[in-house]
Specification:
alpha/beta, Aspartate Aminotransferase, domain 1, Aspartate Aminotransferase, domain 2, five-stranded mixed beta sheet, 16 helices
Length: 456
Amino acid sequence: MDKKIIPPPFKIKMVEAIRLIPRKEREDAIRKAGFNTFELKSEDVFIDLLTDSGTSAMSDNQWAGMMLGDEAYAGSKNFTNLKNAVNEVYEFPYVIPTHQGRGAEHIMSQALIKKGDIVPNNLYFTTRRVHQELAGGKWCDVSVKEATEAQSTFLFKGNIDIRKLHALILKARKEGVTIPYISMEACVNMAGGQPFSMGNLWDVRNISLKYRIPLYLDATRLVENAYFIQQREKGYWGCSIKEIVSQICSLCDGITVSAKKDALVNIGGFIALRDENVFQKMRELVVVWEGLHTYGGLAGRDLEAMARGIYEMVDDDYIAHRVKQVEALGGRLEKSGIPIVTPIGGHAVFLDAKRFVSHVPQKAFPAQALAAAIYVESGVRTMERGIVSGQHGNEPYDGLELVRLTIPRRVYTREHLDYVADGIIALYKKRGTIRGLKMIYAPKTLRFFQARFEEL
């Protein structure tokens, strides 16, 4: 028996039919979508690995909770249940619900950042950076160098470079520039879903205390980060995921969360804080942009599903299976010679497009072209994480050029992922046929969602 295979710690109660449309129809579909997988119709997709955001399968317990929605405009009992769940698992006293993580990022940025501020980040998540910049701040990268080295085997590519952070703080003080907070992401998406270590978090926290700069965490994929700490960092093997999550949060002043990932719901997010004054300021803003502070743009039933998902996400058996499923896909691709980001991340396998389609120059959007080619080959939808996602304005970009194969939680079986691997392996053998792209339309911000392309 293969000891690496962990059976799912759940059984299937309901299924949804999926269909692989003919290749000619897939070719027509990707052209109509402007070679942007975000523009494909869901019905034209066979296996959807576009994102793990809001695509999880909810449990019977969560669906039962949906029937207990208290849809009162103010003071819903479901908000109380959410607050209790956050208090117990994340251990923050103050909670502000939002419609999703983007709403939380917006409110935090507007409340804390003023024009001219600089915000240190360990790389970035696309929407978090945009909100920091729209509020007048300047995003500053203080990630370790390994974060952008696809072939590095460093186990904690999500770490902050302590020397970079310290130098940035001293420079800012000398120039009279404010750093409103240090921003740190769990399982850094743009680095390939890579975690930070607890030791690094302690170092960052000590600097934040020394210079009295708050530390705010993007805890959207915190549970996966906690799993990597449990498995890779000395002293944590015997700790439960819930204990590690608690310790991480104890070192932070606040968190923003897209509950559409770890918390296993289709919509929802929240901010959790320690400082009552900051809480009051952000709570006032949520009423302006999201809804009343006890529902934050969500129905009561969604608040209940989120509360129950928070308890479920820290189950050790569940998260072990979730990450091992990603590892199994990545391991098969790696053994077949497919260039991927190593170590394999927590929520996705990232193909290294610079090596996969080395004949396509970066100006011809290799990751975008590869994502489109994967869809045509197999009906599998993936997404670009390269120059289209990474370039902001006219700034130069020569970073990672990745295609993300994102695994929804509790949705696909091993057979589904074997099919994905077969399709990518087959495509790699004829990778020379993949042509670069020309961008013919792009919005000013977050262009990867709506940009359109033509084949060169």
